[in-house]
Amino acid sequence: QVQLVESGGGSVQAGGSLRLSCAASGTIFRIDVMGWYRQAPGKPREVVATITSRSDTNYADSVKGRFTISRDNAQNTVYLQMNSLKPEDTALYFCNMGIHTTQGMGRMSFADYWGQGTQVTVSS
Asked: Fewer Cβ within 10 Å of end Cβ, the chain: N or C?
């Protein structure tokens, strides 16, 4: 069993900053890509940023230069530093990880896991 627990959401004024964290726990062998997604009311979920196991990063055009994704492999944790926040960044933010797990008897498994979501609200 794997669990992803997010923290760090909240309410800020435009121009402010927040840092999201997402920690994975369970019978984890290795984590491949980690990412952050968001979903605003009435809109589809969209990718915000991703980071590979080699720390190669990709960002949505709307957050480039303002958001920074990073990871701590020893802690199985991914972070999203969000600066210069705008009202249009308001959304429910989800972390996502591609995780290889050990199943016992030498068996391995791979699956995509999601956090429960953390709300970010930016007021003008």
From this structure: N
